[in-house]
Amino acid sequence: MHNPPEFLKALRAELADWRLWADRVVVLLSAALAGLTVVVFTWLSERALETFHAYHARHYWLPLLWTPLLTVGIVYLTRRFAVGAAGSGIPQVMAALSSQTPKECRSLYVSLKLSLAKFFLTTGGLLAGLSLGREGPSVQIAAGVMRSARRWLSTNSQIKESGLILAGGAAGIAAAFNTPLGGVMFAIEELSRKPEDRRSGLLSAAIILAGLMAVSIYGNATYFGVIRVENINFGLFLPALLIAIVCGVCGGLFARLLIYSLHTTSEHWVHRFRRSSPLWFAGACGLVIAIIGMGTDGATFGSGYVHTRNMLENNTDVSRVYVLFKIAATWLTTWAGVPAGIFAPSLAIGAALGNDVSALLNYANAPTIIALGMAGFLAAVTQAPMTAFIIVMEMVSGHDLVLSLMAVALISSGVSRLISLPLYSALTLSQLTRLPPSAAPKSAP
Description:
Layout: H1 3-16, H2 18-58, H3 63-81, H4 90-97, H5 112-127, H6 135-147, H7 161-177, H8 180-191, H9 195-198, H10 201-218, H11 237-262, H12 269-276, H13 278-295, H14 305-312, H15 322-336, H16 343-361, H17 366-382, H18 385-396, H19 402-417, H20 423-432
């Protein structure tokens, strides 16, 4: 038998090049730093939102002044110092990974400067009470941290800059949601376009390590708790099918609205006003968001995590129009031009849709339908069903609902595709228009 000598030979070859192992250590350390950065970002953004709610509770009228003024300030700083930080952050990472983007232009979309700007400007958005999530921004923040590791790699390293950006983006999702598997799936389903990146064990390890940073600090507890599933049987079929279709239609329309608002050359007076007077437009959006928030007793302010958890625990009586108001507040937040994600608001909207369907059908175990609604609406908006169902499964520890979550996510995503183009792909095209004329693509793919 010659296996032992061959094994030892391969082992010696693996250990012979110290630079290979040094590069691996650099990647893993940068992944840990990216995960830690997102953890700090999570903590700071949550404190910012708590501060807003505390002042709102003391001074009910405060959002009418505070929200529009801070929205204007955030948009001014974004446009003046960090244009690439506006919006979700996911389209920027996808643009940086696009084959149409030259290496020297990647800093337009992903860099330490943009990560720092995204960190504080998104936190400012939550301090203003805007309806936004921190998960999309976490993708861009972590990608910028990981990309900066390229300077520490050896000259002939086989680790590509695109691989670092990919791993960083996925690590941002893993750390933000405390869902390492969700981060890996997000990399495969949304970000990766190169087979070699998908097969890279080192990059997968980096994504998981970043997610484990959140686990090590926050513990292994799920964000929304454990869903109590009772007697899953054929009686779940109709509610699950209905919530899948409803989420698919609503999510598809929401994605189409976002694409029309952000990726348009329309000469409608509203679009002209947004282009010619972005600060006045941002202030108007902030004012309407404040009015909506005050009209819903603060329910639409912020990411919606607390509201969603209360629904899952049956601790709140949700208004039947909450869905419409939350969609409006999230749309206006994004349209205003601030750095803002839509993952968390999408989960809140999906949870509310699930709550409404459960009440309509008088279904006994409402949290089950709420969890299905979260997966369905997120899948419909992002058209990334596998990522959506894994994230929700890990966030609610709903392992008994695995097949139901998967089925609802797939159906909702399929329905959404009949209504809207993929949201992030369309917004990536908008990002590519920011390339210099000499590097810009001749035509859209």
